[in-house]
Design brief:
- This protein is elongated.
- By secondary structure, the protein is of the alpha/beta class.
- α17 (542-556) links the parallel β7 and β8.
- The longest helix is centred in the middle third of the chain and has 53 residues, at 241-293.
- Helices cover 61% and strands 9% of the residues.
- The chain has helices at 32-40, 44-77, 83-129, 132-137, 140-181, 183-189, 193-230, 232-237, 241-293, 299-340, 412-419, 442-448, 463-467, 476-485, 489-494, 512-525, 542-556, 568-571, 591-597, 599-613; strands at 362-369, 389-396, 401-406, 427-432, 435-436, 449-452, 530-534, 560-564, 576-581, 584-589.
- The chain folds into 2 domains: 32-340, Up-down Bundle (ABC transporter transmembrane region fold), CATH 1.20.1560.10; 362-613, 3-Layer(aba) Sandwich (Rossmann fold), CATH 3.40.50.
- The structure holds adenosine-5'-triphosphate and magnesium ion.
- Residues 412-413, 454, 534 line the site of magnesium ion.
Length: 615
């Protein structure tokens, strides 16, 4: 019964999954790494130990050339030490390096995947707060690609960056050890560095915009794929497969071009970064070789030195990769932040309280509204969007059932969406039981109202789960009773697995009328104070609709109900009919009164009956 649910309990309270608490820094002028630092730093200890392990691995690696050099000089040439000693040291270094490498790889990849998980959850949590105005505007392919490939590239950077930092450290240590052997030779080794640095800088400058272009082209393709798959029925009906393939091919070409430019850039820069140091290797061999011949350098030292130069190749190779990964991660992070920075156009006020419904009286007073013109926080709204509702007034008493009638596009569904506070008003006020809907929490407001939309949406789960979506702990008996009330039980038991049948994508393996009945069954499981039926039975034939009305009447009793209807049979459920036109109520009375006194009502009915007849 309405009013019984004095303590409000949203569906999400039943979820046991913990939300991600930490979030990125809101100051958008900060660099991308600074902004994400609160998330990354939740793993500070893991990062700390991993870096320690990486340092151990690097040190173990760096000591090898020195040990080999000493072995040659002391054990082979002068014979002052035992060869076994050096072999044992090398073995210990090898084992230490293997263990430490396992440690840092496991630690860093684990951290990177955790950051990926956190970012994805954060993004999803934020999407949950964003209003319909955002989803009306942004293509789902854009959102999907940000949640997938963009998060992926940030994750890759997170795993690699610390390894690169340690590589850099090993570079510095190796230079130190080399200088201990021969300062002139070390100086020769470094001649390539300024060149490598300059090329690296150039690469970085080109890569950032390119990465951005590539990521956004991937998103374009995701949008085409998303629309081709979701719109496959329209595509096939118009035999427009070739057209869709063409759209995809154009997108894929554009992506190919961007990728090619990226690889061309990479291919023309990284060989220099990687191979300039090899010039140094040759020079070192020449100069060092001459020094060894004239006796000022030992053979062991020359071997150590060359091994070091080989070791240095790895950091050089990584510089190119790090630059590319870094630029891509930066572009991706900024695309993710774009969504995270989007303020929710509809937000709970800080002093919002939970609505405690009592009867369900509704009042629209002087409401003005236009789509795409958000009153709060919306930056994208167009200034001259036409008003869908203009100084709209409507009062519905608690327990009353009214029908809203109007031509298509007259704003009937909009009235329902505004009552649910899916959009913010431009003017006026809507209240439920005397509470301005802006003063209560969205979750409590929406749980007090059940909206059965004209286009039912089914999830790809079982029929049972679809019906119990708003009440996940409902028993099979409750679900069955709801399905019976919505006249859905009979067809459900004939499905392959009855209530456990998993419906296809969006329920497209059911008929439109069957989907509507499952969607109506959700209503019978809920206990709202206000019910809105937005053309909810339009695809159900009149005979079955009549039977549904039998159970609906029971449910609607004592609850405030708004039915949006084209059919006379649905209008008959209502105590009062409201005729809407041009964003205003133009007539209000019983069906009979309007029939007798309002020619525009008769016209509208005739027009919509005509529409239905043509079905
Ligand atoms: N998400 C949206 N963004 C922008 N404009 C919208 C949006 N939804 C509806 N509109 C516009 O608002 C107006 C009212 O739409 P609404 O859906 O309320 O009509 P309706 O009376 O429910 O029509 P129908 O009987 O066909 O369902 C229409 O002109 C429509 O083009
Ligand atoms: Mg509508």
């Amino acid at each position: 019964m309405p009013g019984d649910n004095a303590t409000f309990e949203p569906v999400s309270e039943w979820s046991t999954y913990p939300p991600v608490e930490e979030t990125i820094r809101s100051d958008s002028t900060l660099g991308w790494l600074k902004r994400i630092s609160p998330v990354v730093l939740t793993h500070r200890w893991r990062i700390f130990w991993s870096v320690i392990a990486a340092v151990i691995a690097m040190v173990a690696q760096i000591l090898v050339p020195r040990v080999v050099g000493l072995a040659i000089d002391r054990a082979l040439i002068t014979g002052t030490s035992s060869l076994w000693l050096f072999v044992a040291i090398l073995l210990v270094l090898g084992v230490a390096r293997a263990a430490a490498t396992f440690g840092y790889r496991y630690g860093l990849y684990g951290m990177a995947f955790k950051v990926e998980y956190q970012l994805r959850t954060l993004l999803f949590q934020h999407l949950g707060k964003l209003s319909f105005a955002f989803f009306d505007r942004v293509q789902s392919g854009q959102i999907i690609s940000r949640a997938n490939s963009d998060i992926r590239s940030v994750q890759m950077f997170m795993a690699f960056a610390p390894i690169m930092a340690v590589q850099f450290f090993s570079f510095v240590v190796a230079i130190g050890l080399m200088a201990a052997i021969s300062v002139p030779l070390t100086t020769i080794t470094m001649i390539a560095l300024p060149g490598v640095f300059a090329i690296g800088q150039r690469l970085r400058k080109i890569m950032f915009p390119l990465s951005w272009v590539i990521q956004s082209r991937q998103a374009e393709i995701a949008t085409v794929v998303d629309e081709s798959v979701n719109g496959v029925r329209v595509v096939k009906a118009f035999a427009a497969e070739r057209h869709q393939i063409e759209s995809l091919a154009i997108g894929a070409q554009r992506l190919r071009w961007a990728n090619l430019v990226q690889h061309w850039t990479r291919a023309s820069h990284t060989p220099f970064i990687e191979n300039l140091p090899r010039v140094a290797l040759a020079t070192v061999l020449l100069v060092g070789g001459l020094q060894t011949i004239d006796g000022s350098l030992t053979v062991g030292d020359l071997v150590s030195f060359n091994l070091y130069i080989l070791l240095l190749q790895a950091p050089f190779r990584f510089i190119g990769m790090l630059l590319i990964l870094g630029q891509r991660a930066k572009a991706s992070a900024e695309r993710i932040y774009e969504i995270l920075d989007e303020p929710p156009a509809v937000d709970d006020r800080h002093d919002a309280v939970d609505l405690i419904p009592s009867g369900g009286g509704i009042s629209f007073s002087d409401v003005s509204f236009a789509y795409g013109k958000e009153a709060v926080g919306g930056s994208q709204g167009s200034e001259n969007a036409p008003l869908v509702l203009e100084h709209f007034n409507l009062d519905v008493s608690p327990g009353e059932t009214i029908a809203i009638v109007g031509r298509t596009g007259s704003g009937k569904s909009t009235i329902a969406r505004l009552l649910m506070r899916f959009y913010e008003l431009q003017g006026g006020k809507i209240s439920l039981d005397g509470n301005d809907i802006r003063s209560v929490t969205q979750a409590s407001l929406r749980s007090a109202i059940s909206l059965v939309p004209d286009e039912p949406f089914l999830f790809s789960t079982s029929v049972h789960e679809n019906i119990s979506y708003g009440k996940p702990n409902a028993s099979r008996a409750e679900v069955e009773a709801a399905a019976r009330a919505a006249q859905a039980h009979e067809f459900i038991v004939e499905l392959e697995d009855g209530y456990d049948t998993v419906v296809g994508e969006r329920g497209y393996d059911l008929s439109g009328g069957q989907r509507q009945r499952i969607s109506l069954a959700r209503l019978f499981l809920s206990d709202p104070s206000v019910i809105i039926l937005d053309d909810s039975t339009s695809a159900i034939d009149v005979e079955i609709e009549e039977r549904i009305h039998g159970s609906l009447k029971e449910l609607l009793r004592k609850r405030t109900t708004i039915v949006i209807a084209h059919r006379l049979s649905t209008i008959a459920l209502a105590d009062r009919v409201v005729l809407v036109n041009d964003g205003q109520v133009i007539a209000d009375g019983t069906h009979q009164q309007l029939l007798d006194t309002e020619p525009r009502y008769v016209e509208t009915l005739a027009a919509s009956l005509g529409e239905n007849d043509s079905w």
